[in-house]
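The instructor's notes for this session suggest beginning with a concrete chain rather than abstract definitions. Hand out the sequence below and ask the class to guess, before any prediction is shown, which regions might be ordered.
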Amino acid sequence: MAYYAGNYDVVVIGAGHAGIEACLAAARLGCKTAVFVMNMDSVGNLPCNPSIGGTAKGQLVREIDALGGEMGKAADCTTLQSRMLNRGKGPAVHSLRAQVDRRRYAEYMKHKLETQQNLELRQAEIVDLFKADDGWHCITKLNAEFVSKTVIIATGTYLKGRVFIGEVNYESGPDGIFPSIGLDEALRKLGLPLRRFKTGTPARVLKSSIDYSELEEQPGDEQVVPFSYSTDPSNIKNKVSCYISYTSDQTKKVILDNLHRSPLYSGVIEGVGPRYCPSLEDKIVRFADKERHQLFIEPCGEFTEEMYLQGMSSSLPEEVQIQFYKTIKGLENVQVMRNAYAIEYTCVDPLALKPTLELKDHYGLFGAGQFNGSSGYEEAAAQGLVAGINAAHLVQGKEPFILDRSGSYIGTLIDDLCTKGCSDPYRMMTSRSEYRLILRHDNADERLMPLGYNLGLVSDDEYNAFLRRWS
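After discussion, reveal the predicted structure:
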């Protein structure tokens, strides 16, 4: 029997990148807000690549900052290496990318939530969710019952998560944290159009087991550009290098010889994987004529010896992974600390969403992030910000906040999801926007900061600094 535990204006389920921006926006707009997380140590986690930004994603982070979000500030505070991508091309595709300290980024975000007025951060699993006359009822595994006027689902890859490594598969969220099972059943009872998607995470390896003499070094930019307009560029220092290597013919042979052991090809995985970020075995099969594939070897933090193998996600058995890593230059004696895995999870068909990210048939229920069929930290944070604003506006009786695709990448992202839907995890790219020539990273403040200020999410100091820049 559940016990009554409190009333809220906004409840956010999940404290990943979508949940963080959603709960901060709602609380900053004056709503009594609670955010629930499966494990307090997973707030703001970067379960895949330890970086923020990238092609088109850097523009999203800039826009989040211009609207008063937190991701850009967190990235600037925890940057290990900063690079502006695509400098050899036109300014429309210049995109900022930062390698960040994984643990420090999470600590920054957790502390931001802990100290935010109007916001309560709680470790609890929501196992049931239903609508009654007095609002949405959220029931935890420990039988606490919270009632809220609105609810934002930002469950990432936790919702009925299942990990696959070769012939082994088991229920799990990312990084070995419990998955959310009961909520999946509750959402099905509500009649939401749910489906299964899949994504992959590469291995982490020991820094000292890598032969760097065989690798191409990739330093950061001499002149650093911050994500946040409020960050002093002189405060960001490049502390590390990243490295590049390539697969070989031997890598290809090991993978093809063991392809029958991949759950992707044996039919064990039902979920649809990301088209633009395939696993290594998928790349080997789909691009059979390609001689080699590039991989990036990147640090996970300043005070850890873990290195991340970007571009090497896989669901092959652990022993096969170890075998093919050692066919790559610089990794001949590599020591694997965390093996790669695929993870399958439940998400909603985004065609069921309004452009406010409220479910069309469920008043006061919103979705954000990977729950909406997208992939990527930046896409998640952008949706979380919009969902948080609109949940607050719904509670306060204000007009919906909808961004047009002609004025922002965030508008493009949400419009694509809500009107076109997606058959695989959606990823933002500059080519998705027909307005990319004017939606540049360097003018996000001109396009969106007046909106953020009028919303009440951009401070007077930040806005006055913008007016001085603009003049």
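Then share the key points. The chain has 13 helices and 20 strands. The radius of gyration is 22 Å.
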